[in-house]
Design a protein that fits this description.
Blueprint lengths: L4 H23 L14 E2 L18 H8 L3 H7 L9 E2 L5 E3 L2 E8 L4 H15 L2 E4 L2 E4 L10 E4 L4 E4 L3 E6 L1 E6 L2 E4 L5 H10 L15 E4 L3 E4 L13 H6 L7 H18 L7 H4 L2 H10 L2
Parallel strand pairs: 1-3, 4-9
Antiparallel strand pairs: 2-13, 3-4, 4-12, 5-8, 6-7, 10-11, 12-13
Helix pairs in contact: 3-7, 4-7, 7-9
C-alpha cells in the first residue's frame, strides 16, 4: 500500500525526535556549556581543534565530489526550490564570524539519516562559494529509519572560501557503542552555546528542540532537521546518487537541488549577495523570497 506524503512527514517528524534524543544521550556526558549573552558580535575563535582527515579509503570518491561541486547552474535553475520541503528560517542574532567572514556552523552525526540527506545539499551549496578537501564518505545507521543512507562526512574535512567560513562537526559515528553511538568530534563551548540558544524554543518548536542536523548561518538563518525526505536516496550508492544530479526530472535532483538553492540563498544572505554570479541565479533568488528576512 502506498504511503502518503503526510504519512511520510509524520514518520519523519517522529524519527527526528528519536534522533534528537539519541544525539542528546550520546553527547550529554561530554557537554561543557558556556552561556554567551550580551555580545555585540558573537565570534567563534579560530583555535578550534582540527580532527585528522579521513583515511584515503574513507574519503568520498573524487568523481562524486566533482559532480556535486560542479553542478551546472542550468540544472539547479531548472529544479528550482520545489524539492525543498522546508527552507532555512530567518533569525536575528549577534553576527557570527570567523576571521572576518560570516560563519556557517553545521552540527550533526554520522548515524543520523536526516543529516545524511542534508549533507548532500550542504556540500553542493558551499561548493558554490569555495572548495572542499578531504570530504569523507559514510552512511547513516543501518538500524534507524531510512537505513544506510549514503552520504558525505564533515569529520576531518577542510573548506576554503573567500566569502564564508565553515565549521562542520559530526558528534558521533555510525558505530553502536554502549547503547548509543561512538563519539567522534567534540563541540567547542561556543558551538554548544549556539545549540543551546537557537536549537530550542522559540526558534524551533519545543518538540523539535535539539534536532540534528543543526545549521547556523552566521546567526541570520538556521536549519534544524532535514529539508527534504531522505527516502529519495534509499538503496543508492554515492555514485548512483551523484549520477542523477544533472537530470532535472529525477527526484534526487529535485530534492537535493531544491535544498541546495535554499541553502545557497541563506549563505548569500550572509555575504551581502556575493558572489553575484551565484547569488543572482534565478533559483537562488526564488529561494530567497521563500526564506524572507
Amino acid at each position: 500500500m502506498a504511503v502518503s506524503k503526510r504519512q511520510k512527514r509524520q514518520a519523519a517528524e517522529a524519527q527526528k525526535r528519536k534522533t534528537r534524543n539519541l544525539y542528546i544521550a550520546a553527547t550529554a556526558f561530554a557537554v561543557v556549556i558556556l552561556a554567551v549573552v550580551g555580545l555585540v558580535i558573537f565570534k567563534v575563535a579560530g583555535g578550534d581543534s582540527k580532527p585528522k582527515p579521513a583515511a584515503a579509503s574513507n574519503l568520498a570518491p573524487t568523481s562524486v565530489v566533482d559532480a556535486v561541486s560542479n553542478w551546472s547552474t542550468d540544472t539547479l535553475n531548472a529544479v528550482g526550490t520545489s524539492g525543498a520541503l522546508t527552507v532555512p528560517k530567518a533569525i536575528s542574532g549577534p553576527p557570527l564570524k570567523q576571521n572576518g567572514k560570516p560563519l556557517v556552523v553545521y552540527i550533526g552525526a554520522e548515524y543520523c539519516p536526516f543529516c545524511a540527506a542534508e549533507r548532500w545539499a550542504m556540500v553542493a551549496a558551499l561548493a558554490r562559494f569555495g572548495k572542499w578537501h578531504n570530504l569523507g564518505a559514510t552512511h547513516s545507521s543501518t538500524s534507524d529509519v531510512y537505513p544506510d543512507t549514503a552520504t558525505f562526512s564533515f569529520h576531518g574535512a577542510d573548506y576554503a572560501s573567500s566569502y564564508v567560513a565553515f565549521q562542520g562537526k559530526e558528534t558521533a559515528s555510525n558505530v553502536p557503542q554502549n547503547g548509543a553511538y561512538a563519539p567522534l568530534d567534540t563541540l567547542t563551548p561556543e558551538q554548544e552555546a549556539l545549540i543551546r540558544t537557537y536549537d530550542a524554543a522559540p526558534y524551533v518548536s519545543s518538540a523539535d528542540a535539539g534536532s540534528i542536523p543543526f545549521i547556523d548561518f552566521a546567526n541570520q538563518f538556521l536549519v534544524a532537521g532535514a529539508s527534504y525526505d531522505p527516502q529519495v536516496l534509499q538503496g543508492m550508492s554515492m555514485s548512483e546518487i551523484a549520477a542523477q544530479l544533472e537530470n532535472p526530472k529525477s527526484d534526487v535532483a529535485h530534492a537535493i537541488g531544491g535544498t541546495t538553492n535554499a541553502l545557497t540563498a541563506a549563505i548569500c544572505g550572509t555575504t551581502n549577495q556575493e558572489p553575484a554570479s551565484v547569488c543572482t541565479q534565478p533559483a537562488v533568488q526564488a529561494a530567497a523570497k521563500r526564506i524572507g528576512g
